[in-house]
Amino acid sequence: MPINHYLFLSLALFSIGVAGVLARRNALIVFMCIELMLNAVNLLLVAFSRMHNAAAVALDPASTVGAEAQILVFFIMVVAAAEVTVGLAIIVMMYRNIHSVDINFLNRLKH
Amino acid sequence: MNAILLSALWGVVMMFTGLASPHARLHGRMAVVGMALLVVAAWLDLAGISPFGITGGGMLSYGPYESVFIILMAGCALLYLLLSVHVMADGGTGTSDPLALIFFVMTGICIIAGFRSLLMLFLGIEIVSIPLYILSASDKRNLRSNEAALKYFLMGAFSTGVMLMGVTLLYGTHGSFYLEALNIGEEALSPLATAGIVLLLVSMAFKVSAAPFHFWTPDVYDGTPTVFTSFMATIVKGAAFFAFLRLFQDGFGRLHEHWRLLMAFLTAATLIIGNVTAVFQQSVKRMLAYSSIAQAGFMMLALFALNQTARTGIVLYAVSYSLATIGVFAVLARMKDHSFEAFNGMAGRQPLLALLLTVFLLSLAGIPLTAGFFAKYQMIAATLEEGRMVWLAILALLCAVVGVYYYFRVIQAMYFRTGGDAQPEVSKGTRAVLVVTALAVLALGIHPDWLLRFLSY
């Protein structure tokens, strides 16, 4: 399968994520959209890793080119998990104080 | 490499100290000792002494320039801790956990100071950001702190997603995360790579709060408890700029011609928006938040110029801005009322404190004999050295003049007005540290070569 298909799929997922962050008002859904952006990146990284690897293996069958992108995917997963921990804690804290997870709450600080 | 290991380990030590003892004084002392050790560890890095043979596989590299920067940032953090641990103890948020988080942030700062690979840049930025989300939320029952934390978290996570997309697109075209492999010049300028560079520019502009991606800054800095705003707005911001400069100099330096104009517009917008909006603020804390955007505009000049003067100048700027801002925030954190009126007549009630505040504010405004003057001078000189777009240097000078107005409003309130009632409780030890900070600001203002000659490698 050509790399373009993967590229278009993950750019579409990424754009859905960005649009969701900008348009939705519920903090949890905004958060899910951010996770969607990160997963679009993961998909694209794996696809690019395979592409570079296939090009290198054609010259040298023992080549490990492209492994570092897969390592980055693991790092992204770990960091995303850490972010979920902190982010959900912040959202729960906010819910306890105002019984709502609406982003419009954020406009209170502007004088 | 010593500095990374020590700061990460000391963060864990601080967490166990919190378990072992409930005494805030002990936590504070441990943290101060740890930060002093961090300065020593960075010094050992500079001297080339490393008990552990860890190399980082070429993803991290520390030359004298990076090590000196880490020493300076750890030194600023040491002053920050000396001024802040008492306030944290009174704040009711616990002391050992915030202090542990501050050490984890220092780990991230050491990583982004020496990254050679975009993978490390991403990891470093996240290690800096995630503890900061927690610190901004640390005043749990205060709605403003809640709001600041949620906004900071959503903006931070969003810009991380954008940065990762940029990294991935660049990986797709170059097949590597290393800065050396990215910096190969015009033949690599495919549409994908261009999109990647623009996405990285946008996400780094988010992190350093450059206009038009600055809108989260005033709310977050205003809502976060003042002790932690002081850390976020100074040391963290300086380190983010250091990484920004490193990325665009070592990673995309050969494409400078192509993104120079874009950077010039970002710089101009940041300077104008930061300075003009700061004039209209009613609260000193919010004014300092806008002033941090304005000062970011001056640091952006280094990214525009991208020459040797800019390289050394940005470190001088980060240090002088951090020292002065930490000093002002240390006083502000001990006041309940953050409005300009609260400062009225402070010179009569607390003459020493008013004098020290004046030194810090003069430095922020860039008046000669203070560190801020030479920092601004280096930035504008770097821009003029480039010889193109001289209007940017003229704009920066005009904005510096606007800056004098709102910093002097505080000085005017302290010396020429009466009727305020703020009585910040400042202990003898804190006063001594503030005097040391002010002397450092003056020393760098009279003789910046003491610092600059270490940086010109």
Describe this structure in words.
The complex is a heterodimer of chains A (111) and B (457). Chain A has helices spanning 3-23, 27-59, 67-98. Chain A has 111 residues and is mainly α. Chain A has one domain: Orthogonal Bundle (Helix Hairpins). The longest helix of chain A has 33 residues, at 27-59. In chain A, 30% of the residues are buried. Chain B has one domain (2-455). Chain B starts with a helix and ends with a helix. The model of chain B has no long low-confidence stretch (mean pLDDT 91). Chain A binds chain B through residues 3, 7, 14, 17, 21, 27, 30-31, 34, 37-38, 40-41, 44-45, 48, 51-52, 65-66, 68-69, 71-72, 75-76, 79, 82-83, 86-87, 89-91, 93-94, 97-98, 103, 105-106, 108-111, and chain B through 119, 122-123, 126, 130, 133-134, 137, 140-141, 143-144, 146-151, 153-154, 157-158, 160-162, 164-165, 167-169, 171-172, 175-177, 219, 222-223, 282, 286.
The helix content of chain B is over 70%
Task: Report the top-level CATH class of chain A.
Answer: Mainly Alpha
Which two chains touch over the largest interface? Answer: A-B, 45 and 40 residues
Q: Over the alpha carbons, how many angstroms does the gyration radius of chain B reach?
A: 21 Å
Write the layout of secondary structure elements.
The complex is a heterodimer of chains A (111) and B (457).
Chain A: H1 3-23, H2 27-59, H3 67-98
Helix pairs in contact in A: 1-2, 2-3
Chain B: H1 2-20, H2 24-47, H3 64-90, H4 96-113, H5 118-136, H6 143-174, H7 179-182, H8 191-207, H9 216-223, H10 226-251, H11 256-279, H12 284-305, H13 308-332, H14 346-349, H15 351-365, H16 371-386, H17 390-416, H18 428-446, H19 449-455
Helix pairs in contact in B: 1-2, 1-4, 2-3, 2-4, 3-4, 3-10, 3-13, 4-5, 4-10, 5-6, 5-10, 6-8, 6-9, 9-10, 9-12, 10-12, 10-13, 11-12, 11-17, 12-13, 12-16, 12-17, 13-15, 13-16, 13-18, 15-17, 15-18, 16-17, 16-18
